[in-house]
Amino acid sequence: MLRETRGKLSLASQVRGLRTRATPAVLRTSVQPSVVEQEVVEHTPEAEEELTKYAIQRVNDQIGENKHGRLFAVIYLQGKQHLVTAEDLVVVQGPFAPTIGDTFRLEKILAVGGRDFTLLGRPLLHKDLVNVEATVVEKSLSHCRIFFYNRRRKNSRKTKFERETHTLLRIHRVELLHKVNEAPDIEGVDGRIF
Amino acid sequence: MTSQTWNRFWGSTFVKAPLQNGVGRYVQQLQRITFKFCKTHGGSRGMRDFIEKDLIEFARMNPGVVVYLKPRRHRSSCLKAEYLNGGEEYISAHKQSSEEIKKWVEYLRTQSGYSVERLRKYQHTDRPSIQGPWTPWMHRDQCINIAEYPQEELSCAVKREKTATQELLEKSKIFVGVNNSS
């Protein structure tokens, strides 16, 4: 989204850390300059800061006008991470307290993104920024798993049957509550017990 | 019996929920539950205890579920559940205590009516990608979009940085040059 303002240097910083190598400089000179007009931008801290502000402004514009479209989120649930959007189904394996019909909010959100941007938590995003809600649709047991232990030539064998609890969650909402870098007056009070 | 044989008999599914359940509204899937038991035999004693103690509470807590009691002479007790999607589940409650039966009733109440099978994936999504799938051209220099192919520079091997040997050779050349000039 920031292609028009970025010169070669910024583009180089964009590909830094990727395993694929940047296009060799020989190729850049071979294309016609009339088609791609690029200029070398001075790499200064001020320019970097300006670019950051511009990017945040663009993201905030999308959030303010609600134009970001469908959002995805990386949630942390029972020791596992899931990449989800609204209307997704997630199975929680093992003991889990909520029963069918319960709706709750997932508070550990590692990342949220839309079509044009991604907000990464360090490691978690603030609770006031993102709201991800889930409904328990089904609680059942997994298929019967068999654990068969056998010692050869020792007349000893043992079979165990196990069915663990499966909780089926429907993610029914992923939303951003306010703009980036614009925290509300009172933070983190929602649903907290003092 | 190996695990392969097991899978062949029991099958496997992906995660699913009937009728988009949970999107906007939630509907309990259990429709009917039937308690079959004998009034005299000892195998149904736990079931009779459950009916005396907990059944009224269960019916009160689940107004959307129809509860049937079916006494049958000299036959073992069982539970039969029927779901909105047409699924059925039968559980034998023979010689089980009322606590065990309570757990199985709770299990039947929270099911969705699909038969239990091994899950191949533990997550389901209808929108696999929002920012688009990764392609080899992602974050590459845009010059290659309008380049004409075949191109010699792209066809040749990737030019790597100078090796240590090459650098040493070059330095030695410079060194030789300096020595010669002096």
Automatic annotation (TrEMBL), chain A:
Presence of the UniProt keyword Coiled coil in the record: no
Alphabetic keyword roster: Ribonucleoprotein, Ribosomal protein
- InterPro entries in the cross-refs: bL21-like (IPR028909)
Q: Which GO terms describe its molecular function?
A: structural constituent of ribosome
User: What Gene Ontology cellular component terms go with this record?
Assistant: mitochondrial large ribosomal subunit
Give the top-rank taxon of the lineage listed in the UniProt record for this protein.
Eukaryota
Record protein name field = Large ribosomal subunit protein bL21m
UniProtKB/TrEMBL annotation, chain B:
Q: Name one GO molecular function term.
A: structural constituent of ribosome
Protein's GO biological process: mitochondrial translation
Pfam families named among the record's database cross-references: L51_S25_CI-B8
Cite the entry's keywords alphabetically: Mitochondrion, Ribonucleoprotein, Ribosomal protein
Q: Please give the GO cellular component terms listed in this UniProt entry.
A: mitochondrial large ribosomal subunit
Q: Which InterPro entries match?
A: Ribosomal_mL43, Ribosomal_mL43/mS25/NADH_DH
Instruction: Please state every residue range assigned to the domain named Ribosomal protein/NADH dehydrogenase.
Output: 39-112
The protein's location, in the record's own words, is: Mitochondrion
Matching entries from PANTHER family are given as: 39S RIBOSOMAL PROTEIN L43, LARGE RIBOSOMAL SUBUNIT PROTEIN ML43
Q: What is this protein called?
A: 39S ribosomal protein L43-like
Q: Which organism is it from?
A: Homarus americanus (American lobster)
